[in-house]
Amino acid sequence: MLIPSIDLLGGRIVQLVQGEKLRLAFDDFDYWIEKFSRFPLVQLIDLDAAMRQGDNSALVSQIAKRLPVQAGGGIHSIERARQVLDAGAKRVIIGSAFFSAEGTVNAEFAASLAGAIGAGRVVAGIDTKNGRIAVKGWKAQVELTPDDAIPQLEPYAAAFLYTNVDGEGMLQGFPLATAERLRELTQRQLIVAGGIRSQQEVDALDAIGADAVVGMAVYTDLLAV
Fold first, then answer.
1. Could you give the CA distance from residue 31 to residue 168 in angstroms, rounded to a whole number?
2. If DSSP codes are grouped into helix, strand and coil, which group holds residue 36?
3. Is 206 a residue of the active site?
4. Per-residue pLDDT reduced to its tens digit, 81-98
5. Which residues pair with 140 in a beta bridge?
């Protein structure tokens, strides 16, 4: 399944390269909402909140009322998760809050969150740079790998969202071997992102049981939707 991505930064829809360099920016929200309205799931990320430099809460709420979204970015508490769900999101994506600075999985918070909102509404974000999990808007890393984290979070999430930050926005393809390895780590829904550039790649990922988040390829018309 192809999952289109809407990333928000400074009140605009954007596409970044490797989470840092601004490549594209759009203000026509109605155009993209209409374009993505036929999809059963859309990914919505508040990059400002993820980077701890403000938020786009009003936009998140507006979009979540019009599209079936899983929303993430700066969700660090049960209260904030509930706010995003109450705004209309189907699921919340939790990344940094699941990991401590000491390089451990915060299983206590994961259990509390799943107990409060239901594990079925939790997507665990596993973002990596050079194989290690990246946090705080991809600005820091912890001494954990997906192989360490996924089994520990398995009871508390309905899905895992793995982002290959090294390939994000590069349009160089997603490493299929990585997706195959991740698929063996979990029985939950597996969603991957980072560099996906063609329908053939989406189909290859689907064949091994992985859904594909696509951003740059959609916004540059490399992949038609």
1. 23
2. helix
3. no
4. 999 999 999 999 999 999
5. 135
Whether the CB-CB separation of 192 and 164 falls below 8 Å is answered with yes
CB 3 within 8 A of CB 41: yes
CA distance 101 to 111: 19
Active site residue 46: no
| Cα–Cα distance for residue pair 218/169, rounded to 1 Å | 11
CA atoms within 13 A on the CB side of 158: 15
Q: In terms of C-beta density within 10 A (0-12 exposed, 13-18 middle, 19 or more buried), how is residue 45 classed?
A: buried
Catalytic annotation, pick one of 46, 48, 55, 127:
127
Which of 101, 92, 153 shows the shortest CA–CA distance to 126?
153
Per the CB < 8 A criterion, the answer to whether 196 and 217 are in contact is yes
Could you say which of 7, 46, 48, 55 is catalytic?
7
Closest CA to 122 of 62, 163, 80, 164: 80
The CATH number of the domain covering residues in 2-219: 3.20.20.70
Half-sphere exposure of 53 (CA within 13 A, CB side): 10
pTM: predicted TM-score of the whole model, two decimal places = 0.94
Q: Is residue 21 over pLDDT 90? A: no
Sequence spans of domains, the chain: 2-219
Q: What does the alpha-carbon distance between residue 133 and residue 92 come to, in Å, rounded to a whole number?
A: 19
Q: For 194-219, give one letter per residue: b (16+ CB within 10 A) or e.
A: bbbbebebbebbeeeebbbbbbbbbb
